[in-house]
Specification:
By secondary structure, this protein is α/β, with parallel strands linked by helices. It has 2 domains: 19-37 and 67-86 and 363-466, Aspartate Aminotransferase, domain 1, CATH 3.90.1150.170; 101-345, Type I PLP-dependent aspartate aminotransferase-like (Major domain) (Aspartate Aminotransferase, domain 2), CATH 3.40.640. It contains 14 helices and 11 strands. It has helices at residues 3-10, 12-29, 54-64, 87-99, 113-127, 142-160, 165-168, 183-191, 213-222, 245-251, 312-319, 349-384, 408-420, 448-465; strands spanning 134-139, 175-178, 199-201, 228-233, 257-262, 287-291, 303-308, 388-390, 398-403, 427-431, 434-440. The chain has a 7-stranded mixed sheet with strand order 1-7-6-5-4-2-3, sandwiched between helices. Strands 8-9-11-10 form a 4-stranded antiparallel sheet. A hairpin with a 2-residue loop joins strand 10 and strand 11. Helix 6 packs across helix 8 (183-191). The longest helix is centred in the C-terminal third of the chain and has 36 residues, at 349-384. It is globular and about 65 Å long. The chain starts with a helix and ends with a helix.
């Protein structure tokens, strides 16, 4: 064995103790870690002939890169709907790496991680109040979850039209309708060869990011002889607006279409009593996307797909490893190899399993409710301020606002100045063609004191800039 490998194996306890101390330090100091990194240039690296060993590499990381890690897992990083990692999920993620399982089969071919994955899916369905008629699995993020669901939808369309898209490829255009899709949905449609320009946009409700269901029904009536994929939003990326899922569920009783819901982070409202009406009816969907690295506060990369079990035949047709006979019959001998895009993947269920069981329904309900409350606190400040104004109503946990009286160019400069202070981090967005700032609250550590800091930063930046 190469000398550095042998040495690292012999000293693994010391090495992991050093990593544990670094992890502990991060959790203890995350509230004070700057929310953005200073600009850096990429170094011109050359791989050495002789390795220096893990201990020396760790020391080099501390010297060269640790100070560049921004506080994206901290309580005042509100960009991109990025959650933090709960302590339990970090434990699960560490162990997922340690045990390094081949997460595929439940038949005991090497490990039982797929059994834990199916059990974790059951925990998620229970938490989200979804029926056990859904089957699910773990993928990298919302993009791959949407891709997986839409891949099965595409196969369903083809079979309805009398041919097998997985075997023969697309032969006819696929009808896809939506209101305000996330970019990852459009990306998935493009990757599946259905063509992003084939998406038919249904008008939105006035002043909303939600689809006009009456207009949707008009389209379905006019295209009653066609097979259609309907894409819904359960929490739009800009303002967390929701399509009327209950009304669309009713349309399913009359019209035959595949219904996919992108609930990447908005689906979490299912656990909050006064918000769960937003997802009423979603149990009738054919497929649902939920992201775990957002409001569930699981480390990147982690998301789940939920697809009704009645579609499993189409799912197998889409993803089966037909050229690997040693894997057995995909229906009789279950393996995730035949149900999702990836053949090789890490044990993503374990961090979720740890975190769900560690904090339970009440723990996650508290996180979600607290995020909603702090979003409202920031909203209250903006509504009473003469310096800032809301651009969109705060329905759940995202606040869209801008500076009063500034041009678009100056708005951008203001945001850059605000973020460069490195106390809070928010991102630019566009709400109904109006540019704005967007603060997304999903972190398990965010409290009202962070909103106090944010208000101070907004006031000081305004004074500095204006």
């Amino acid at each position: 064995m190469y000398k550095q490998l042998a040495s690292d194996k012999e000293n693994i306890e010391v090495l992991l103790e050093s990593v544990k101390q670094l992890t502990t330090q991060h959790f203890q100091q995350v509230e004070t870690i700057p929310t953005s990194a200073k600009p850096q240039e990429v170094k011109n690296y050359h791989l050495p002939e002789e390795g220096i060993g893990a201990e020396a590499v760790l020391a080099q990381f501390k010297t060269d890169y640790q100070q560049l890690m921004c506080g994206s897992s901290g309580p005042r990083y509100w960009g991109y709907v990025t959650g933090g990692a709960t302590p339990a999920s970090v434990i699960g993620d560490w162990l997922a790496t340690t045990f390094d399982q081949n997460t595929q089969s439940v038949q005991g071919r090497g490990d039982v991680s797929a059994i834990m994955e199916k059990e974790t899916i059951q925990l998620l369905l229970d938490f989200l109040n979804l029926p056990k008629t859904f089957f699910g699995g773990f993928v990298t993020g919302a993009t791959m979850s949407n891709f997986t669901c839409l891949g099965v939808a595409r196969q369903w369309i083809g079979k309805n039209q009398g041919y097998d898209i997985a075997l023969d490829g697309l032969q006819k255009p696929v009808q896809i309708v939506t209101g305000m899709p996330h970019s990852s949905v459009i990306k998935g449609i493009a990757m599946l060869g259905m063509g992003s320009t084939n998406i038919h946009k249904i008008p939105l409700l006035d002043g909303r990011e939600a689809i006009d269901v009456e207009k949707l029904e008009d389209f379905l009536k006019q295209n009653a002889s066609d097979d259609v994929i309907v894409l819904s939003s359960a929490g739009t990326v800009n303002s967390v607006d929701f399509d009327d899922l209950k009304a669309i569920a009713t349309l399913k009783e009359t019209y035959n279409f595949w219904w996919h819901i992108d609930a990447a982070f908005g689906g979490m409202v299912a656990c909050v009593e006064d918000k769960k009406h937003f997802v009423e009816g979603w149990e009738k969907a054919d497929s649902i996307t939920v992201d775990c690295h957002k409001w569930f506060n699981i480390p990147y990369d982690s998301a789940v797909f939920f697809i009704q079990e009645k579609h499993q035949k189409r799912q197998i047709e889409t993803f089966q490893n037909s050229n690997a006979p040693y894997l057995g019959n995909p229906i009789e001998d279950f393996s995730y190899l035949n149900f999702l895009p990836e053949n090789s993947r890490r044990f993503r269920a374990l961090p979720v399993w740890f975190s769900l069981l560690a904090y339970g329904k009440k723990g996650y309900q508290e996180i979600v409710q607290r995020n909603i409350d702090v979003a409202q606190k920031l909203t209250n400040y903006i509504e009473t301020s003469e310096k800032f104004e809301l651009v969109a109503p705060t329905r759940v946990n995202v606040v869209c606002f801008k500076v009063v009286g500034l041009s678009q160019e100056k708005q951008d400069e203001f945001l850059q100045t605000l973020n460069s202070r490195r106390k809070i981090f928010i991102t630019p967005s566009v709400y109904l063609e109006q540019s704005c700032f967007r603060a997304a609250f999903v972190n398990w550590q965010t409290t009202e004191k962070d909103i106090v800091i944010a208000i101070e930063e907004l006031e000081e930046t305004h004074h500095q800039y204006i």
